[in-house]
Amino acid sequence: MERGRPKALACVRGEGTLCGCVKFYAIPGGSLVVAEVAGLPEEGPGFFAVHIHEGGSCCGEGFPETGGHYDTTGAEHPGHAGDLPPLMSCHGRAYLAVKTCRFTPEEVVGRTVVIHSHPDDFHTQPAGNSGRKIACGVIRAV
User: Fold this and answer.
1) Model confidence over 54-74: pLDDT tens digits?
2) What's the DSSP call for residue 78?
3) Is 62 in contact with 14 (CB distance < 8 Å)?
4) What are the φ and ψ backbone dihedral angles of 34, each rounded to 5 degrees?
5) pLDDT(125) > 90
6) DSSP 2-63
7) Alpha-carbon Rg for the chain in angstroms
């Protein structure tokens, strides 16, 4: 379903060799989000929460300037616009493609993509008990 060029992307960097790319393609009424990540920790369940965060900076240890989850409606988690399905790691690598009508690529430019150390429980407020931030990338227009 990847057609044409992405409208936005985030180069994600994190602990150790953790790195990847998250691309945002424009589709009618929303976005196709495609993530390719390598260097994920291999211990644990192999699932990692990934969210779009409000903040626009990945500076500092633990990425303190990313803010909360991107939210356009005042919804509770997991109803935030920036709540995405988890990454599922296989030998430290993950691929995710998800279609969403919660935002367009243009709406998330300047925000951040954050990968967390644990899977999202899709219940706990405000962020799903997803653990510490282990990788971050600023979303840029392409």
Assistant:
1) 999 999 999 999 998 899 888
2) T
3) no
4) -125, 120
5) no
6) --S--SEEEEEEESTT-EEEEEEEEETTEEEEEEEEE----SSSSEE-EEEES-----STT-
7) 14
